[in-house]
Structures are given as structure tokens and as C-alpha cells.
Amino acid sequence: MANTTMEEFEALLQESFEMDTPNEGSVVKGKVIAIEAGQAIIDVGYKMEGRVELKEFANPGEAPEIAVGDEVEVYLRAAENARGEAVISREMARREEAWDRLEKAYADDARVEGAIFGRVKGGFTVDLGGAVAFLPGSQVDVRPVRDAGPLMGLKQPFQILKMDRRRGNIVVSRRAILEESRAEQRAEVIGNLSEGQAVDGVVKNITEYGAFVDLGGVDGLLHVTDMAWRRVNHPSEILTIGETVKVQVIKINKDTHRISLGMKQLQDDPWDLVAAKYPLESVHKGRVTNITDYGAFVELEPGVEGLVHVSEMSWTKKNVHPGKIVSTSQEVDVMVLEIDGAKRRVSLGLKQTMRNPWEVFAETHPEGTEVEGEVKNITEFGLFIGLPGEIDGMVHLSDLSWDERGEDAIQNYRKGDMVSAVVSEVDVEKERISLSIKALGGDKFADAVGGVKRGSIVTVEVTAIEDGGIEVEYEGMKSFIRRSDLSRDRAEQRPERFSVSDKIDVRVTNIDSKTRRLGLSIKAREIAEEKEAVEQYGSSDSGASLGDILGAALKGDE
């Protein structure tokens, strides 16, 4: 009996020597034989036991699921430690197992399941069932994610973008999965849409230029110009995020899958009735919607706008910005000047609804009317004077004074002076009004020489004696008699023989209305008198001397 036992022992000992003990650094199967102090005691066979922390059996955020009797795979790090126990790890076993599985999935371009469990710089950490991967922030969703809280700990599919087992690096993407499913969904939605179709959509986003509308998995752009027939300054005027709207599919780009939408296409086009509603030269009320450098846009009705060009805004304000004449939202009366249905353009006039101020002035101020106004401007050729109706009249240099040269007379005026003048001409077409200051109180020269003709004898008064002749005055009009015209007799052609205030008879030799001068001569009067005496008292060949005849004539005069 004892011998038998001895033999059995030897056999068992031999068997144990021959038995292959597992290699350190490999994954082995084991059985949970006890759970104590937060650890599982696992028998890995070969008379080896080891301890593993319970948390190594739990997925991130979950409670460990382990019980006595469970079979598990663990990684044998060392066969024996100081306490004579095997050093084993469940986590490392899971990692090895996971890497094998993930490498196969990466090779097959297959999706893997995992859960986001932590946040790191530039992204998140993902547990892929034992292996830890990096999820960059840009790969979390199709659009940037502000709060990744709801995604944490959630089991979901990922796509492996890169892996390096030697370095232990894995990079995954959630976005690639979403894009793929979205592309499938998009293709399906687009396949069910056709151009011209009316569909319901939800406003997802509003920008300066339009709104994005979700048509059930696919977005379409509703441009601001397609929202309404009227001018829309910003989409938020008529849309709000989350609102359901009816839109028409205008265009589908099969290559880019872009969809253009419109709302106004589902409403009646107001332009169909424009020509009938707004005949040429008819006047309508409108609202100023926009002001530019070249004019103002006026809305006649929602969807119908016309342009009042700057040249059609005012009769009088020529080089003024439209914003100085009208303001946005102002109600104005406008006249329809032209309609171009093809280009959807209406030309409007603002000034045509008011009377031409030059016409009004011509009616109320016929030529010869006296007016009063402020000197608005002084130029080298005359004065501009402000008149009723915000228009100007011009007094030319030549119309400033009868007596002074225009260049001298204009020096007497300053900007802002109030002056009176007479209307001399109104040209409505050229928008010109000519005024005269010198014509105030009539034409003195015309009045003075009214009954005087060439050859008339008039009495003048000497006002000044000069070397070259004498200055005389007739009815307030000054004239000059040259030395050679002072007498027929050369010896008597001396200015000094006259005195100021002398009254003398002279003959009118010329009437010049332009220079407003009378040509006067004593010599001409004497010659004329001599001629008359000869005719009365005999001819020059009757033998009587001229002196006799003149003497007799002069005696007769006395």
C-alpha cells in the first residue's frame, strides 16, 4: 500500500514537471474561486492563483458583473510574486483581445462599438471594449457640438480612422457614421423630390442671405429674394427658427445634392397686373423702401417697386443726394413714367406730381413785374437772386446799372442782400429767368429822348468845362460836346468861353440807345441855321455876300 502511494506520488511529480506551464505575457483562462475585499481570486490552473480588482471587470460607468464560478480570460504578467501568487490582469487581457478584434475590423473597414467615457485636450476618449481610442472634437458630429454630455457612456458605432498597435494609438470617428447614414437618408429624400413640387419644411437656421429649411433629413436653401415678391431686408422679418413653412422646390442639383427653395412661387405674381393697374402718367401713393446715390426705390404695393431716378426727384434740387429730398418709409406721390414688364422695372417721377415752378412763375410774374429776393450767388457774369418756388433768377452785368459799367456796379452787392428787380424774360424750357435791376423805375434815357429826333435843336446846361470840350446835361442825361463841335469858327472852339450853368442850344447829331448817349453839336446847329438863312434870303450866286445875308438874317431874328 505504501509502495503504491509512493509510486503514485512519483508519477504525479513527474507529470507536474512534464506539464507545460503557461508563458508569462500570454492570455490564460481562469475560474473565479472567491470574491473578497473588492478583488476576485482567480484560479488560472497549474496550481496558480491570482487577484484582480473588481473594477477591471466593469465597463466605463457600469457596475462590475462577476460571480464565483465564472470563467474569465486574464493576462499572466508574472507566474509568481513575493507572496507566491500569480500576477494577472483582466484589463490587459481585454486589451489584447480588443486589439485583435479591432485590427480585423480595421482591415475589413467595419464599424466598431464603443462608448465615450472621458474628455481630453482636442477631443474625447472612447472605450472600444478594452482598448482606449481617441475621438477628435471635429469627428464627434457633422456640425460642431457644444455639449457632449448626452453622448457620454452611450454605446454607439464608430469608424476606425487610424491604428498603431506598437504605439497603442487608435483614432476613431463618429461623424463618418452620421454622414454615411445621412447621405443614404438624403439620397432617399432627394429621390422623392421633384422640381416644382410644393413641400412642408421646418426652418432650421436663418442667415443674412436666406434660411435653411429641413425637408425631413435634407436641408434646402430658401434665398431671401425667393421669400416674397416684395423687398425683404432680412429673412427674420418673415421667418422664425422652428416654424413650419410651405415651400416649392425650385432646383435640385443631382451632383452636389443642393436644393433651392422658394416661397413666393406659391403666391400670385403681382407683376401680372402691373401694366393694367398703373397706366402711364397715372399718379399713385407709394412708400420709400430704399435710398441709393442714383435715386430712391418706392413700393407701390407689396412686390411692386419702382425707381425714382435722382433726375426725376425735384425741379430745383439738381446735384443733391436723394436722401436729402426723401427719407426711408416716407409716403410720397409718384407718377408712372415707364413700365418694362420683361425686366420688371417701373420708372417713377416725383417732381411730375408737382407743378413746374418755372411755369408757375411765368404765369404769376409776367415780363415787367417787379420782384424782390435775396442775392444767393455772385459770379463773374452777374447776380443770382432767390425767387418764390425755390428757383433763381439772374441779373446780367449789363442789367445792373444805366450809368456804371457792370464790372463796377456788381461791387455794390453782397451775398444775402435783399434786392428788387424787374422780370425781363422767363424761358420755361431752359429753366431760365432773366431779371433787370436797372429797369426799376423805367428807362430814363428812353423817357428823356422820347420826343427828340436827329436834327432836333435842344437846350442843354453846361455842367463841366474840360480841355477837350464841355460836359452838358439834357433832362438828367449827360453828354459831351467835343472842342471841334463847339463852333463853326475855329477861333471860337474854346471851351473856356463857356461857364458852368450856361444854357446853350445844340443840334442832336446822333441818338445811341446802346451806349445811351446823345451826340450834340453847336457847330452843326450854326451850319444848319446858315443853310436855312441862305434858302430864305437868296441863293449864293445872287451877288450878295454870305456876311450880308447872315447879317440880315440875324437882324431879322433879333
From TrEMBL:
Keyword Iron: no
GO MF: mRNA binding; structural constituent of ribosome
CDD domains: S1_RPS1_repeat_ec1_hs1, S1_RPS1_repeat_ec2_hs2, S1_RPS1_repeat_ec3
Biological process terms in GO annotation: translation
A cellular component term, taken from the record's GO annotations: cytosolic small ribosomal subunit
Domain S1 motif: 25-91, 109-175, 196-264, 281-351, 368-438, 455-523
Pfam families to which the protein is assigned, alphabetical: S1
Key words, A-Z: Repeat, Ribonucleoprotein, Ribosomal protein, RNA-binding
Gene3D superfamilies: Nucleic acid-binding proteins
Similarity remark: Belongs to the bacterial ribosomal protein bS1 family.
Job description of the protein: Binds mRNA; thus facilitating recognition of the initiation point. It is needed to translate mRNA with a short Shine-Dalgarno (SD) purine-rich sequence.
Database matches in NCBIfam families: PRK06299.1-2, PRK06299.1-5, rpsA
Protein name: 30S ribosomal protein S1
Lineage, opening ranks: Bacteria, Pseudomonadati, Pseudomonadota, Alphaproteobacteria, Rhodobacterales
